[in-house]
Amino acid sequence: MSTRKISDSMVRRLSGYLRQLRFLAAEGRRVVSSQELADEAATTAAQVRKDLSQFGSFGQRGRGYPVVPLRDELVRILGLRRPWRACVVGAGRLGTALLGYEDFGKRGFEIVAAFDVDPELIGKEVEGIPVLSIEDLESEIRTRGIELAVLTVPHGPARRIADRLAEAGVRGILNFTPTRLRARPGVSIRGMDIAVELEGLSYRIVTGGEPGGNGA
Amino acid sequence: MSTRKISDSMVRRLSGYLRQLRFLAAEGRRVVSSQELADEAATTAAQVRKDLSQFGSFGQRGRGYPVVPLRDELVRILGLRRPWRACVVGAGRLGTALLGYEDFGKRGFEIVAAFDVDPELIGKEVEGIPVLSIEDLESEIRTRGIELAVLTVPHGPARRIADRLAEAGVRGILNFTPTRLRARPGVSIRGMDIAVELEGLSYRIVTGGEPGGNGA
DNA sequence: TAGATTGTTAATCGATTAACAATC
DNA sequence: TAGATTGTTAATCGATTAACAATC
Lengths: 216, 216
Known about the structure:
Chain A has nine helices and nine strands.
């Protein structure tokens, strides 16, 4: 199964191809060229072909790539054939906003619970999702089969809660806190650090460059 | 002034060093080694020294880097000496959550306005920030001297609004929408794409790797 | 002085780009 | 067949790592 090492930037590009393929499939398109995929994902046709060829030969020379089979292939590669069970930890403003983020479902991520410390919230539902006590974090994660966590707690408890999530068997954490989490074996971490991105924008602007970084 | 080309990943590391330097300065620490900065920013001591040496010689051999001067140097390099005037476009759940995100101010970004289409919201204040009509986007941006925009509108209008922001003279856009914005000369763009990051997590988990990507 | 740690050069590694034969 | 476009190899480019002389 051709397992080279795949860089983060390549995985991001694969997400971009998948998004475009889903769009084209919905429109009924049958075939797409590497050039067209490249345009949407802000890369080059050569890069698209190189990326895809890591996993097999999905296209037809002279014709392009068949939309639906390639989409399904990318869904398989990215591990999205079945939905992931996820929770939001921290039902504050940001957490609540994310509970209502409808694209989660569309993209294969099912939010099954939220956790918070606030007694006012615990036991209620927000956006149709039950808010549970963070005291029961470990047991609820186990009984509900939760695999991913979106972390939106304050800086103070962030590390400790990340440790508890790892302990409870969560496989991945999407970290919206301004806290750098230390790596834990068996747990993948992705950071969404607003301050870091804003500082990146600031740097690009003052140096007069618009190498827009990722273009997402 | 040493102007090599600086990669996005390097700018992200610089943000990480800055964060740690601010923390150390608040604690009263005088000196820090490349090794200590590396530990916090999830990189290596050699990388830290290489990164910093792009901009000058800030350390003392045998002693390390002086905390406050290096912090100030990074503030200067990243363009953070004066605060950036920013707005949030789209005062829905996510936009509102971001309006209350206190770290903006601490890190040198001042939110001076929000924009929305909802007549219920227009004219009110949310988190002490005035919500203005998106009809007045261009004029308000100009009169209020807004330089950055945080985009949290739905997919539908995202491209058009990004174009209007660019037209009105905004220098940078932090894009929380699931829409890929096309580059515009003079406007830097950073994407915070939740779906892309979740798919990245998914891939890392199914391939059993925890090369946690960024660790933010 | 002896120990520590930077700044910088050279070596390595990995990712991107270019080119083109294969083939639809 | 002629034109288009992939898959793949080779060339280029850039980023990271290692090593060590300089020097505090």
